[in-house]
Design brief:
Elements (H helix, E strand, L loop, with lengths): L2 E5 L3 H11 L20 E3 L3 E5 L6 H11 L14 H7 L1 E4 L7 E6 H33 L11 H12 L2 H9 L8 H12 L4 E6 L7 H17 L3 E5 L12 E4 L6 E3 L5 H12 L6
Parallel strand pairs: 3-7, 3-8, 5-6, 6-7
Antiparallel strand pairs: 1-2, 1-4, 8-9
Helix pairs in contact: 2-3, 4-5, 4-6, 4-7, 7-8
Length: 285
Amino acid sequence: MYIDSFRFPGVDAEEQFVNYIRSTCYTSFYPFGVFTLNQLEALSFSDITILYGNNGCGKSTALNLIAEKLKAERDTLFNRSSFFGDYIGMCEFEMTRGERPEEIRMITSDDVFDFMLNLRALNDGVDRKREQVFDEWIENRNSKFQMKSLDDYEKLKKVVAARSKTQSRYVRETIGNNIIEHSNGESALQYFSEKIKDNGLYLLDEPENSLSPQRQIELLEFIQNSARFFRCQFIIATHSPFLLTLRGARIYDLDENPVDIKKWTQLEGVRTYFEFFDEHRGEFM
C-alpha cells in the first residue's frame, strides 16, 4: 500500500467555482460536475482497487486526475480541459505511512496500442531488409568478383560469406532475427511485464483492450502476483469480467448513485454475462 485515499472537490467547492466561470465564454466545465452526478467524493484504496462502470461513468477521468495529482509517469498524453488544473488543485490525497513507491506510472490502452504499432513498423522494416539481403546473397554467391585493391576487401568478405553459408544462415547473421514474432495479445502482455516493476504504484486504464479472454486471465495472474509478491499497488479502471475477479480487489461501482463498493458477482455487467451463458447452458453440453 502506497496511497491510502484520494478526495475529490466537495459539492460546495465545485458549485462555487462553476458559478464563478458561468459568466465567462466557457460552456463546458469538465471535469467539474462529472462526479457530482454519482456523488463520488472520495476513494479509499486497497492493494488492488477497481473502478467499474459503463462508458461515460468517469472511471478514466478519475484515473487521469489521480495520475496528474501524483505526478505519475506516462508514455502518451491525454486531452486536458481548460479547467483540469483548477480541479486537480482542489483534490487531495493521503499516502500510507512508511515506504514510498519506487515508481508511479499510468498505463493506458493507447500506450499498449502504440507499443504494438511500433513493433509492427520495426518488423516491417526488418522484413524489407531481409528481402534486400536475399538478393545480396544471390548476387554475391554467383559473383565472379576478383579483389583488385584493399578498397574491395568488404565486398570480398560478403562474397566469401555468401559462398560458404546457406541463404537462411547468411540472412540471419546479417540482420538478426525478427524483433518480435508475437501476436498482438502477446505483445500487450510484454508491454505490461516491461513497464510494471517491483515496489511500484500503477494506474491501469482498461488494460483488457486488445487482449483475448485467455490473455486477460494471464494478465490477471500477473497483476495478482505483482501485488502479492512484488510489493505493487494497483488502481484499475475496467469492465472486464475476468479482471473484476482479482483476488481481494476493492471494487467501486461508478454506475451506482451514490457510488458503492460491491462484490464482482453483484455488478450489472457481470450479471449480464452470467444470465446470457446460463440461458445457453445446454449448448455447452
